[in-house]
């Protein structure tokens, strides 16, 4: 039981390779930011608008100024139906697999009640957190409990690319 708790990443921006960073500790998921000529591309956005914004702002503050890169958010790529898209459309391209909107919405519509109840037990959402105690969620110390939003994809991948 202690091993996962001891190996949970400390909140931060971790360089994976040149131009690729993972942002960890802001939500139950990990988000990846890639520097492209057109701007920044976010892979697997976090679960809520608040955690996604905090993670992106953290990247801009801690990593962005040191790169000399274009720090404009150009695209968000969702790789699986559990990604809750938390970005407004505007000039941001939202890229997703074929039938993403249908799958994401139907999955969340059909099982959201059960997933929520399970999360209360699985992640200890209803337990008080303080400096002496916190339930650990495995990938992070907790999941975000703020508003989940949705923006439909603007570019759907319709063919195999491998």
UniProtKB/TrEMBL annotation:
GO molecular function, one term: linear primary-alkylsulfatase activity
Gene3D superfamilies the UniProt entry points to: Metallo-beta-lactamase domain
InterPro entries named in the record: Bact_Alkyl/Aryl-Sulfatase, RibonucZ/Hydroxyglut_hydro
Annotated GO biological process: dodecyl sulfate metabolic process
Domain of life from the UniProt record: Eukaryota
The protein's name in its UniProt record: Metallo-beta-lactamase domain-containing protein
């Amino acid at each position: 039981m202690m091993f996962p708790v001891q190996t949970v990443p400390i909140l931060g921006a971790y360089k994976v390779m040149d131009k690729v960073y993972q942002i960890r500790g802001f939500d139950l998921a990990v988000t990846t930011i890639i520097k492209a000529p057109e701007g920044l591309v976010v892979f697997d956005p976090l679960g809520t608008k608040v955690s996604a914004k905090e993670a992106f702002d953290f990247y801009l503050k801690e990593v962005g100024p040191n790169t000399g890169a274009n720090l404009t958010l150009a695209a968000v790529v969702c790789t699986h139906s559990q990604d809750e898209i938390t970005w407004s459309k505007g000039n941001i391209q939202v890229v997703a697999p074929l039938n993403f909107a249908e799958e994401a919405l139907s999955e969340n519509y059909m099982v959201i009640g059960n997933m929520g109840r399970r999360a209360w037990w699985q992640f200890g959402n209803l337990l008080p957190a303080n400096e002496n105690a916190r339930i650990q969620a495995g990938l992070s110390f907790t999941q975000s409990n703020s508003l989940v939003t949705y923006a439909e994809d603007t570019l759907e991948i319709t063919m195999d690319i491998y």
